[in-house]
């Protein structure tokens, strides 16, 4: 499968890595990741150029990694710095090194041309560090599904009434139309407001709503594989304008999709909230609801993926609700084409 390469993907949470080598498979490439003595992250191709033992089976020695078979040792840029038993180091004794960037507890990896790695392009939001918001890292959800199908699901408000009836959806939203548009930098936004309707389970728990609320869902898809779902509720009597939605209970749910291969994706999710800022346990309690919801998505996506593989390229029925996903797929297509031309 062809992937967009000149972009940042999430390799893991900061807490996943230490001075112990750890293997990750991203875009079908095996990579070993570890921390240097300073804490700085290193990512190298996970195959020793001697007899192909994965370097992740070796040992980190200071800032370097030593192969567990015959002791070839590589530095953080993938250069071989030691060959036990001989003084000269063969020219071909090197491994590819991947640019990395770490911020807000997230480790990003650049899978394309290292010369084009641009740290200003790493996904960021002011809410990560704002005192008016609380940020909480969730889990890594492993899905046996193609990342494009997972991304479709993350710009798809229409499924929540059916897939998440107890947490994120309720029947009131079923027939409310959905808007989708492409904004700056090819970000696809899909959104709708469900006005003056009973609160969903999530906002009964967070916000304590009992009476009718206005509920919004804005699904932002940053191609190729970051999603941010801005959703929330406010008392329907306030009749909030969209631009005033920070006055309600508002959550930014972030999903960082890492394609492992054509049928396997890791979705690392976290959330930022503007409510219960002083309650440390609120993040964990939110995780519990999200875990229920995302297990429901996983169930649907994996079952659909199996049938899609069997359907042998049969064209899906096109619906109005798919506009966001179609815009997103179009952006991916043009990204792939422009990388192929380059
Ligand atoms: S396979 Fe790595 S040193 Fe021989
Ligand atoms: Fe979902």
Order of helices and strands: EEEEEEEEEEEHHEEHEEEEHH
CATH superfamily of the largest domain: Naphthalene 1,2-dioxygenase Alpha Subunit, Chain A, domain 1
Distance between the termini: 18 Å
Structural class: alpha+beta
- Report helical residue fraction: 10-25%
Mean pLDDT: 96
Tell me the total number of β-strands.
17
Radius of gyration, whole Å: 22 Å
Write down the overall geometry: elongated
Strand arrangement within the widest β-sheet reads 11-17-16-15-14-13-12
Q: What is the CATH fold-level name of the largest domain?
A: Naphthalene 1,2-dioxygenase Alpha Subunit, Chain A, domain 1
Strand content: 25-35%
Task: Catalogue the ligands.
Answer: FE2/S2 (inorganic) cluster, fe (ii) ion
Query: Which regions contain 5 or more consecutive residues with pLDDT less than 50?
Result: none
In short:
This protein has 342 residues and is an alpha+beta fold. Helices cover 19% and strands 32% of the residues. It is built from five helices and 17 strands.
Question: What characteristics describe this protein?
Answer:
342 residues, alpha+beta, Rieske Iron-sulfur Protein, Naphthalene 1,2-dioxygenase Alpha Subunit, Chain A, domain 1, 7-stranded antiparallel sheet, 5 helices, binds FE2/S2 (inorganic) cluster, binds fe (ii) ion
Notes on the structure:
This protein has 342 residues and is an alpha+beta fold. It folds into 2 domains: 8-119, Rieske [2Fe-2S] iron-sulphur domain (Rieske Iron-sulfur Protein, 3-layer Sandwich), CATH 2.102.10.10; 126-341, Naphthalene 1,2-dioxygenase Alpha Subunit, Chain A, domain 1, CATH 3.90.380. Helix content is 19%, strand content 32%. The protein contains 5 helices and 17 strands. The protein has helices at residues 147-153, 160-163, 201-205, 281-311, 323-341, and strands at 8-13, 22-26, 29-35, 41-45, 59-61, 64-66, 73-74, 80-82, 100-103, 106-110, 134-143, 179-182, 188-197, 213-222, 226-235, 249-261, 264-273. The strands form 4 sheets. The protein has a 7-stranded antiparallel sheet. A 4-stranded antiparallel sheet has the order 5-6-7-8, with no helix packed on it. A hairpin with a 2-residue loop joins strand 2 and strand 3 (29-35). Helix 1 (147-153) packs antiparallel against helix 5. The two termini are 18 Å apart. Bound molecules: FE2/S2 (inorganic) cluster (FES) and fe (ii) ion (FE2). Fe (ii) ion is lined by residues 153, 159, 163-164, 293, 297.
């Amino acid at each position: 499968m062809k992937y967009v390469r000149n972009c940042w993907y999430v390799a893991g949470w900061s807490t996943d890595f230490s001075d112990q080598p750890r293997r990750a498979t991203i875009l079908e490439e095996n990579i070993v990741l570890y921390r240097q003595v300073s804490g700085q992250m290193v990512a190298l191709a996970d195959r020793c150029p001697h007899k192909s033992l994965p370097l992740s089976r070796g040992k980190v020695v200071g800032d370097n990694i030593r192969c567990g078979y015959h002791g070839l040792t590589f530095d953080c840029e993938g250069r071989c710095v030691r060959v036990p038993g001989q003084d000269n180091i063969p020219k071909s004794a090197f491994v590819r090194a991947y640019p990395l960037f770490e911020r807000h507890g997230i480790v990003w990896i650049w899978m394309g041309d290292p010369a084009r790695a641009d740290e200003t392009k790493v996904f960021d939001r002011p809410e990560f560090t704002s005192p008016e918001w609380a940020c909480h890292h969730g889990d890594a959800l492993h899905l046996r599904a193609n990342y494009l199908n997972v991304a479709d699901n993350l710009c798809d408000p229409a499924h929540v009434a059916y897939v998440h009836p107890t947490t994120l959806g309720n029947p009131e939203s079923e027939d409310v139309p959905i808007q989708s548009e492409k904004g700056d930098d090819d970000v696809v936004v899909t959104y709708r407001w469900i006005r003056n309707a009973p609160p969903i389970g999530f906002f009964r728990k967070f916000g304590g709503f009992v009476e009718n609320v206005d509920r919004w869902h804005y699904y932002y898809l940053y191609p190729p594989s970051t999603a941010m779902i801005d959703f929330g509720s406010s008392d329907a009597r306030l009749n909030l304008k969209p631009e005033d939605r920070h006055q309600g209970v508002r959550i930014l749910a972030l999903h960082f999709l890492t394609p492992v291969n054509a049928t396997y994706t890791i979705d690392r999710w976290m959330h930022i909230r503007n409510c219960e800022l002083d309650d440390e346990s609120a993040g964990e309690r939110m995780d519990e609801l999200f875990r229920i919801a995302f297990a429901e998505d996983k169930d649907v996506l994996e079952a659909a993926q199996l049938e899609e593989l069997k359907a042998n390229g049969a064209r899906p029925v096109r619906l109005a609700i798919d506009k966001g996903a179609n815009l997103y797929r179009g952006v991916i297509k043009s990204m792939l084409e422009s990388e192929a031309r380059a």
